[in-house]
Amino acid sequence: MKSQEELIGEISTVMERFMAQSGELEFAYKALEMQTEQLKKMQEELHQSRILSALGEMSATVAHEIRNPLSGMGGYASLLARSIPPEDPRRKYVDKIIGGISSINKIVGNLLVYTKKINLEKQSENLVAWVEAILAHIEIEIEKEGKNVKLERSFPPEPLNAEIDSERLQQVMLNLLMNSIHAIETEGCIRVGICTNEGFAEISVSDNGKGIEQEHLKSIFTPFFTTKEQGTGLGLAIVKKLVDLHEGSISVESRSGKGTSFCIKIPV
Length: 268
Ligand SMILES: Nc1ncnc2c1ncn2[C@@H]1O[C@H](COP(=O)(O)OP(=O)(O)OP(=O)(O)O)[C@@H](O)[C@H]1O
Ligand SMILES: [Mg+2]
What we know:
Layout (H helix, E strand, L loop, with lengths): L3 H80 L7 H25 L7 E4 H19 L2 E7 L6 E4 L1 H18 L3 E11 L2 E8 L27 H11 L3 E7 L3 E9 L1
Parallel strand pairs: 2-4
Antiparallel strand pairs: 1-3, 4-5, 5-7, 6-7
């Protein structure tokens, strides 16, 4: 027969064990709860990214389908414009139709580049000559905009070769340079720089235009963010996508009212 003290001792040992185990159980339960919460969040994210990818595919198909009838409409509208003399009041309506078609074309074209899967076709390119050719094109765009914009170059004296998809990266440069032209009201300066730094080719585009407001800086690479009436807001989203495909990076510095500087780094 156990004494009363012995029984109390045993009961208290069992109680202690029970308390310890219930503490462990509580801890395990909390961990499980946290994991369930995380799992739920991951499920939601997966669902969201599935919706986004389906939307991306759908918009790529829609954009592709819109292209053909749109180019037909553009062609016929141009023919119509040619048959109506400029002084005819009906001419301005046709010009508006042509302007509208060209805006839709820009949106559809940008949407296609942004949503479709791109396989780069890289080859070795001398960046100095390559940028020079792009600037020749930009001179024409500056003329078209009727602005007094000076182009400054800061290039290395020797050729600088990098493996790039020249057509895709040209699109990057044109988007950056067109944004700079748009940021300059009537006159200003755009400086394009090329240099190498720790295994990377750095290409910078800086302007002394109106700059980007601090609160907009975090949104400029987000698709459809625009402060322009005629903008698609896809320019910089495409820039980011194409630079990422080159395993490069892009950074931006801007001061409202002073100017903006973008710098692309591409592995050499
Ligand atoms: N160099 C710049 N100077 C000032 N603001 C800029 C500059 N580059 C970009 N931004 C700002 O970032 C926004 C997004 O640029 P993004 O190129 O993506 O679209 P967008 O230029 O508005 O439209 P799109 O490229 O279709 O013409 C612009 O609307 C503008 O507010
Ligand atoms: Mg743009």
